[in-house]
Amino acid sequence: QVQLVESGGGSVQAGGSLRLSCAASGNTYSSNCKGWFRQAPGKEREAVAAIYTIGGTTYYADSVKGRFTISQDNAKNTVYLQMDSLKPEDTAMYYCAAGMGRGGPFDPYEYNYWGQGTQVTVSS
């Protein structure tokens, strides 16, 4: 089992920045990929960014490329999502997920463990 706890969400104005954190505990060796997903009211969940624990390869959705940066501190079992130049359309609940990522870093079915989420609200 892997437990994931997100933090760092909040309310900012457009153009502002936030940094989300995802602290993992438990059997962290059972996952090799961490991803950030988001879901806005009335919309489907979408992948935002992902990173492989070994090698550190990163992936980004086109909608956030150039604005968001995913990183990890393996010693702390923590993954971060630095979000810059935020837009109102980035408003959503953001979830951290952990899995093996064999089927692709943006396939939600590849993730076995999910956090409770942290709310990000961007006002215009």
Compute the average pLDDT. Answer: 94
Distance between the termini: 40 Å
Strand content: over 45%
- Number of strand elements: 11
What can be said about this structure in brief?
With 124 residues, the protein is an all-beta fold. 0% of the residues lie in helices and 53% in strands. The mean pLDDT is 94.
Which helices and strands appear, and what pairs or packs with what?
Blueprint: E1 2-7, E2 10-13, E3 18-26, E4 33-39, E5 46-52, E6 58-60, E7 68-73, E8 78-83, E9 92-99, E10 111-114, E11 118-123
Parallel strand pairs: 2-11
Antiparallel strand pairs: 1-3, 3-8, 4-5, 4-9, 5-6, 7-8, 9-10, 9-11
Report on the structure:
The chain is mainly β. The chain is built from no helices and 11 strands. The protein has strands at 2-7, 10-13, 18-26, 33-39, 46-52, 58-60, 68-73, 78-83, 92-99, 111-114, 118-123. Strands 2, 4, 5, 6, 9, 10 and 11 form a 7-stranded mixed β-sheet that branches. A hairpin with a 5-residue loop joins strand 5 (46-52) and strand 6. 35% of the residues are buried. The model has no long low-confidence stretch (mean pLDDT 94).
